[in-house]
Amino acid sequence: MKKASFYPLIRKILFQLNPETAHHITLHLLKWAEKIGLTRFLPPKTEAPIEAMGLRFPNRAGLSAGFDKNGEYIDALASLGFGFIEVGTITPKPQPGNPKPRLFRLVKEEAIINRLGFNNKGVDYLVEQLKKTKYQGILGINIGKNKDTPIEKAIEDYLYCMKRALPFASYITINISSPNTENLRQLQHGDLLKELLSALKKEQAHFLEKQKKYIPLIVKISPDLTSDELKSMADIFLSEKIDGVIATNTTLSRDGITSTEIGGLSGKPLTARSTAIIRELHALLENQIPIIGCGGISNKKDADERIAAGATLLQVYTGLIYQGASLVKEMA
């Protein structure tokens, strides 16, 4: 408890900075601390093993994609006690993302609005980082499409990333739900979704045949889906034998907040909606596909509610910024 009490002071200092600047400084400092051995003074990882998707997770608490897009800080982040880490979203070609400013804190609501737009250094850069990491734990790689790739050619982008990421991944996440890449969410529906998942499942089977290793495929979904849309997606997930679902990404809703900034909203305002989506999806999937609960987890109560709603694993991003590393232990 004593170690965790330092975080409010650290947060106060960081919150004086631009959010994107503060994020990069935090990651650089954590990497430096890990290199000189300071992270050994952090509490040890909570061992509460759980099996899902054919993988054994040391605990339920995972780091969501977006925190370390390019895989540059994996070893440092692992020192915070996560049971698994997800990097990305990564695209075939490097891209700068949307113009700055594009990340906004809503401190009173313990929320963040982002319109980053898949800013990353490209999948080949990520692969080079993964070759250097010492991390031996469960690693998810989140893949997307480049902004300038037409939606009808999106499959090519996802396949390009998947082929390069598979040798390094414990699982692959298909991001089709970010609100910050134009038309991306169209891939959540109907024939576009079926065609995409079918192509990626074929690549998964090809890798299994060649390398004798099965890499689970996970889909990350939006919290802004209607019940009918969710039902349609669940049917496709079952028919295509998808291995897992992350529920949820950020929301376009502005319920309960006053900000009019454009982008995806994460943090506490997303809590109730994300939990409701998990509960509804769990009923539709009939325990055949595990769910990773993500979006608005700020404390142990939020984590417990996701598990009660049907989540098997959990992921955090915004809650980590507001609560600090002590939240990982609470989730685990």
Find the structural class using helix and strand composition. Answer: alpha/beta
Per CATH, what is the topology? TIM Barrel
What order do the strands of the largest sheet run in, or round the barrel if closed?
A: 3-4-7-8-9-10-12-13
Task: Count the domains.
Answer: 1
Which spans of ≥5 residues are poorly predicted at pLDDT below 50? Answer: none
State the major sheet: 8 strands, parallel, barrel
Query: Can you tell me the overall shape?
Result: globular
Distance between the termini: 16 Å
Helix content: 25-40%
Fraction in beta strands: 15-25%
Q: With helices defined by DSSP (H or I, 4 residues minimum), what is the helix count? A: 11
Q: Give the radius of gyration.
A: 18 Å
What is the CATH first-level class name?
Alpha Beta
What is the strand tally?
Answer: 13
Q: Quick check: average pLDDT?
A: 94
Can you offer a commentary on this structure?
It is a single chain. By secondary structure, the protein is of the alpha/beta class. It has a single domain, classed as Aldolase class I (TIM Barrel, Alpha-Beta Barrel), CATH 3.20.20. 38% of the residues lie in helices and 17% in strands. The strands form 3 sheets. It has an 8-stranded parallel barrel with strand order 3-4-7-8-9-10-12-13, surrounded by 4 helices. The protein has a 3-stranded antiparallel sheet with strand order 5-6-11. Strand 8, helix 6 and strand 9 form a beta-alpha-beta unit. The longest helix has 22 residues. The mean pLDDT is 94.
